[in-house]
Amino acid sequence: MLAIDKTIAADSVAPVDPVALEKSISSATEALLGYRQSDGHWVFELEADSTIPSEYILLRHYLAEPVDTELEAKIANYLRRTQGNHGGWPLVQDGPFDMSASVKSYFALKMIGDSVDAPHMVRAREAIRSRGGAAGSNVFTRFLLAFYGVLSWRAVPVLPVEIMLLPMWSPFHINKISYWARTTIVPLMVLAALKPVARNPKGVGIDELFLQDPKSVGMNKKAPHQSAGWYALFSTLDKILRVVEPLFPKKLRQRAIDAALAFTEERLNGEDGMGAIYPPMANIVMMYDALGKGPDFPPRAITRKGIDKLLVIGEHEAYCQPCVSPVWDTALTCHALAEAGGEDTLKKMEQGLDWLKPRQVLDLKGDWAVKAPDVRPGGWAFQYNNDHYPDLDDTAVVVMAMDRARRQSGSKDYDAAIARGREWIEGLQSRDGGWAAFDVNNLEYYLNNIPFSDHGALLDPPTEDVTARCISMLAQLGETAETNKAVADGIAYLRRTQLAEGSWYGRWGLNYIYGTWSVLCALNAAGVDHQDPMMRKAVDWLVSIQNKDGGWGEDAVSYRLDYKGFEDAPSTSSQTAWALLGLMAAGEVENPAVIRGVEYLKATQTEKGLWNEARYTATGFPRVFYLRYHGYSKFFPLWALARYRNLRSTNSRVVGVGM
């Protein structure tokens, strides 16, 4: 880790120049408006690591699609640039070596045509082999290698497709796992039953990445997050299934495959794809191929076309996004614009909200309804279309933005949308008082111990950040702990989950800075006294981790299972903005740390009015998959600067909205 000097002078800090501040806000607002799409919404690139671009290349060769030389060359450029100094590929910029990302990236580059003797390939191979070889890959990588015939099926967990026929009361059921796991596993189970082999016209393999015969590789070991007892139990079950699965009646297997196909076809979701995320979409294309459905078979063709819509193709590089984020980007941008103010800016904000309004899911009960059958739909998805899987976090943020517009204009245009969004969120509170991202009461924690769940992200349980957002929404709409049981239970959840150091975990943003910002906003909106020990501890923690340059930063290493306290990281614009917004929500607008943070954002703003942010500050799955939202450095710093200006111009210095 980089050593960041935390020594900050305790003497007084010069006040922020209001003229320079206004210039920064105006410049950032103009730049953000410049990214507006013609129909009024915003969507920014959503970048993950090298695994998905690599999987995209390997999918094309699995299917023996015609080689797109120009596209492959651009993806190869991206992969070569993101290779780490350690020789392998990281999950975040400048991050440590990751085995699975490195194996897939090497395989993709070799498939594209890079010589195994090229210096970067030699470095990658040596890095992989010196760390035990490709046998250390995770479950998803092992499945890919099994499809390519590199590994035998002994190296992956048994995934009998007959799981589709299990009743809800059984210990494992697809509705007891997260939406992203569910949509990925269903087509994967069909593939595991059929065991197809990649066409791989070039005949490329990666045996050289193993220290032993790849065919001799057995199951992976227990993951660090897994309980030895539970893992032993599930591993024994896996061994039993390995013996009995071939004996399952053929009619039963066909019934199960039919059930998987019915599940998939109900949720195909056009070119946006099932779940609107890359892994299930790729698995679906492979599944139909294994079932003998040609490239022109409509469900396969439409899904395959949808995958290409995830590509970001530049002049010299290209990569594949895991999904797209237009609802999230537009809603957050609207909040930043509401804070920035100005007649034209607010008009553009309302046009963004008008784009969002018809995307509310009002008629379709998605998978969430299995555990909440009496709740009416009313949420928004993260992507353009994903009606089966609306997102509570997005919904809360959209509702709060609409409520802000309603307050400013006095219009009743958003009343019905706000009411339905609120109703849906209240109906999806889990029994522990928290809220999850997509489901309710997804609390079957024992399932993270099955061999398939080496990533530890099989579930979608309540989290501090999403809980905070839902409380923020309810509180902004006028509810308090005294008037609303959901708010009271949510605040109790947050009291229980605060760490001793004063921070809160951030599941979907990196990490404790994100979680603490989210919770402080919620507690303020809900009327919790700023002198409450819970809030004072959080404020003290945020101030204590400020970097000497005035900014805040946090690295993905903070998700380590043995977290013992904050570790220094370089400042970023988005994490600095979160810290500032959190401190201001706690009544700290006059705190010297806030002034230093504002000055950091002003000093690091580019001539174009934006901020450069190469570091990853968001999370897909902790320790496994991280995200770089290209929009975060465009709207969060503006939001923080405008919030500071607005609070300084009032007597109360109190944030009157939920976030």
What does this structure look like?
- The protein is mostly helical.
- 46% of the residues lie in helices and 3% in strands.
- The two termini are 31 Å apart.
- Strand 4 and strand 5 form a beta hairpin.
- The strands form two sheets. Strands 1-5-4 form a three-stranded antiparallel β-sheet, with no helix packed on it. A two-stranded antiparallel sheet has the order 2-3.
- The model is unreliable at 1-5 and 7-11 (pLDDT under 50).
- The chain is built from 22 helices and five strands.
- The chain has a domain at 1-12 and 20-38 and 475-659: Alpha/alpha barrel (Glycosyltransferase).
Topology:
Elements: H1 18-33, E1 46-47, H2 51-62, H3 69-82, H4 99-112, H5 119-130, H6 139-147, H7 179-194, H8 228-244, H9 250-266, H10 278-290, H11 298-308, E2 311-313, E3 318-320, H12 326-340, H13 343-356, H14 392-409, H15 415-427, H16 464-476, H17 485-497, H18 512-525, H19 533-544, H20 573-585, H21 592-604, E4 618-621, E5 625-629, H22 632-648
Antiparallel strand pairs: 1-5, 2-3, 4-5
Helix pairs in contact: 1-12, 1-22, 2-4, 2-10, 3-4, 4-5, 7-9, 7-10, 10-11, 12-13, 12-14, 12-22, 13-14, 14-15, 14-16, 16-17, 16-18, 18-20, 20-21, 20-22
